[in-house]
Amino acid sequence: MCVPPVVCPIEALDPDLAQRELFKQMPTLELDVTFPLRNFLTEISPNDAMFDNSAHYVNVGLSALRVLEYAIARQLIAPSGPQRILDLPCGHGRCGRVLRSRFPQAELTVCDIDRDGVDFCASRLNATGVYSSRDFDKLDLQCSYELIWVSSLITHLNSRYTVKFIKRMEGRLSEEGLLVLSNHGQFAVDRIVAEEYLYGLNTTSLECLVEQYNLLGYGYVDYDGVEGYGVSLISRHWLEGLFSDGQCMIADYLEHELDNHHDVIFVKKRAVVNVSTPDPSDALV
Asked: What is the average per-residue pLDDT within 249-258?
């Protein structure tokens, strides 16, 4: 009796092969000769949900860089740069690679609920990885930071979680530190009303979202079928009220600056705010 040979998939012999093949198929970022940063990570993870195409991905990074340079020009960040940086949520490094390249000597901590993203950023960006938690009180952050970068997080939280998260970050901010938050502000509202961008929501949810925003200054709805994670709209007035007392204050505010979409809020400890007089050359273009 002839027994047919057992054909063993090569993936069974090398479990990491499939992952390596995925990486081979992923594009790398294409950088123009005028790209301003050195030693910039161009590798893209196959699991990077933020990657759509190289041009847009790079442009988001460049808009983040402009925000950082603006903060330095306004003396919100020391010219020598921060010693310790927290990037939360880090994703797969869309902004983290900018932070690492712009501040190569800084101690960078990357944090996200997406553990694959944390592992990718930690290994590629010479960073310390921290797995996040849906309970912000359980975030295992061991030190204070001179720069806390938070893009695309409160844009997905209800008001209770936003307040809880911000208070948690205030507690991890060094005395001279800067907390940078991105937010869906009036520009996002206008896009919804004009039906230019619908944020993955149905008509009923969008109407509810905008109505809450107009009434309260804070609108939030869950994504369909997802509890506790969705889309928020937050007015500048609501945020100014949140920071009207307490240990931190809004030191500056830029409208639809990050990716020509998100508002950017610069938060500092109240006792140490000493913002320079605006200069026309500081304006972002």
From this structure: 98
Closest CA to 90 of 53, 125, 141: 125
Half-sphere exposure of 255 (CA within 13 A, CB side): 9
Read off the pLDDT of residues 258-277 as tens digits, 9 standing for 90 and up: 999 999 999 999 876 655 54
- Domain ranges for the chain, please list them: 24-30+38-183+235-269+278-282
Fold classified for 24-30+38-183+235-269+278-282? Rossmann fold (3.40.50)
Beta-sheet pairing, 145-150 with 84-87: parallel
How distant, in Å, are the alpha carbons of 12, 146, 261 from that of 189?
50, 32, 11
| Residue 107 · residue 85 · CB < 8 Å | yes
Q: What is the DSSP string of 166-194?
A: HHHHHTTEEEEEEEEEEE--HHHHHHHHT
Backbone φ and ψ for 182, nearest 5 degrees, come out as -105, 150
